[in-house]
Design brief:
27 helices; 837 residues; alpha/beta
Amino acid sequence: MPEAALTPMMQQYQRIRRELAADTLLLFRLGDFYEMFFEDARNAAAILNVALTRRGQVPMCGVPYHAAEGYIAKLVKAGRRVAICDQIGEATPGKIVRREVTQIVSPGTISDLNLLDAKRNNYLAAIGLHKKQIGFAYLDTSTGEFEMTELPDAAALEDELARVRPSEILIGDGPQRQAIPLDLPSVVECDGYLFIPEQAEHTLCEHFAVQSLDGFGGTGMTAAIGAAGAIVHYLKHQMRRQIGHVTRLKVYRRSSSMIVDAASQANLELVESRGARDMSLLAALDRTLTPMGGRLLRHWVLHPLCETAPLLERQQTVALILEDPALLNAVRESLKGIRDIERGLGRLSQAGGNPRDLLALKNSLDQLPDLRARFSPLATPRPGEQPSLGPAIHAALREFPELSCELERALVDEPPIALKDGGIFRDGYHPQLDEWRAACRDGKQWIAALQQREIEATGIKSLKIKFTNVFGYFIEVTKANLASVPEHYIRKQTTVNSERFITPELKEMEGKILGAEERSKALEYELFGELRTRILHDSVALQETAGAIGLLDLLCSLAEVARLFNYIRPKLHDGLSITLRDGRHPVLDQSLAEEKFVPNDTELDGVNSRLQIITGPNMAGKSTYIRQVALIVLMAQIGSFVPAAAAEIGVVDRIFTRVGASDDLSRGQSTFMVEMNETANILNNATERSLVILDEIGRGTSTFDGLSIAWSVAEYLHDELKARTLFATHYHELTELELTRKGVKNYNVAVREWNDQIIFLRKIIPGGADKSYGIQVARLAGLPKRVISRAKEVLGNLEQSELNADGKPLIAEEPARLSAARRRAQNRENRPQLSLF
């Protein structure tokens, strides 16, 4: 439709729409609704399941502005960006109301607390390339957390993406996009020049008001700077965000933290579990009481440390808190009253926020004096004891008495959510506001008195003086009483059952009342802006305090879990040995209801017990055991106490796991191919300091192929990589490696047989298992009796086939170094084929 044929309002809409990207939906404020037109309306109506209507030839749909948050959440969840266009000026007769896009919401830039998971960051990430280095940066616009690093290859990038899990990813268009071989979710292609290091450095220096980035520790990280600068430019210029709360840029390097690749994160269920019930490690450790603590705990679980010094500080702080149960309980009681200071500041700094955000901040500030006093016993280092985080936390827990008093004096006890509806500030806070409120109240009292006088004067007992936004104040008289209406009443409107009238006296008072009400609301809006500016003046100190609260909350959570479940402090060292006595699975130990968890010992010394072959039946606990060792090590490397009677852990640089069976149909990869890819990743990246967890390598192919691969992988891990390895398998032939490899040790899960039944004892004992009890497990699963009976018959035939060409048992004199696999293969080549039927 030609623009000249459109109404002035629709021409305004088109001008604003042309400034936005094609994939952005424009919510255009019209009165009490946000309206969408043309193609936006068609797309939004399908996502929101609302009616698609027409105004003339223009398709349109709309949602109520007071309920817009829920609809915006649906659009963002569907992967769309949403531009919010609000009325900026007041309505003037004969003129179009001025409108502007006040913010653009996308999956990675949500700031509304109702749309966010309180204990999970919402990151906007960027990927840049420069001289074969991959720059990676991410920012949580709701909290101001901003970090960057450089990665050597696409595999490392994939691991980091799995840890950060950004909601939206920026990447340069053209060659940069083509150079990243990953199938990235929620990608937004930006102009490539934003990632040019010189351009990006200028953007960052301008934002942080510095001459260089040397003070941030990013010297030489040109690819990372490109990614970080692209984020800032994108937010300021494309998303029209104010990001004054982003005051820090943290540089981190992969070498400072344990690397847990994407597959291992999923296999160990670190932060998410596969079932409906949350059985993740994060859920087991999370007793945090504040959103800041919950988000920080998630970050720690996904970023374990490799340096012992900071880990010992964390451990010592948990130990000191545990020593004083009264302190732990008192601090946790104070933490219960603290809201999300970080995200509240983020909303206020982005010209958003509402009166409830101010109230939440006030309530949080009110808790700080008690919290600081209750934590004060740990504020001073103890002579002769290991350093803790106590003094630093106490110093960062600042109090804000002036700001707290100002908020207390200003805000009513229950302020409204809507900013422009008034009713935010207490009487007595501002003289002019009190004056206009009094005029408004007096006017409404005058209206009530007028109604009573008119009833008495006219004798119409049903007479009412009412108000609507369209007609203002009016006198309503039912049609049955129209004969009693005085002559000086001026007819305004006719309805089905009544007539509406005005009088000069009523209209004059209406102007006074509405004028006072509008002026008071406008003044409250100004006062809110001044109060927001006052808060943001202390934003850096408030952010530091919020960070200290989160850290304290996290450490108290670890102490509470240790107290509840009898965890102990592990001894960390830089050697290779991992020794656990009576270790328990941290998740199952908390969740088992029908049986008590059976603890087990572990001894991996990197020399004489470098690779453990663990055999035993299905369901006996092999997988649980090997995963619990990995989880205990990871817990120790976030500074947590661990579920064991004693633990000495040589810090590991990486944890690798190959567990379970799954395919990847999107990439055309079979179950076995996925298994081999994960195994290849381990063999190509593990080091002597790594911990490797393998469960059933080689089971996705034929028996001999699988056994051969498993055998070779075990030898390579032991001989070449020398990595500490727990290898669970049903290939009993692998137990013969103990005869030829000094660092291989055999263990099995103990079972007891009784009347052709098996009882799982869940205990790991030295030695290899001689069978897997698969048929007994199949019976427990409920397979039909005929199937079980036939399986026994087939198993008997297979076991009898272990004969030589003469039909006699394999000779015992064969050299022990000759593997069982080779003997069986040679035997099968020489003997006649045996039928199973």
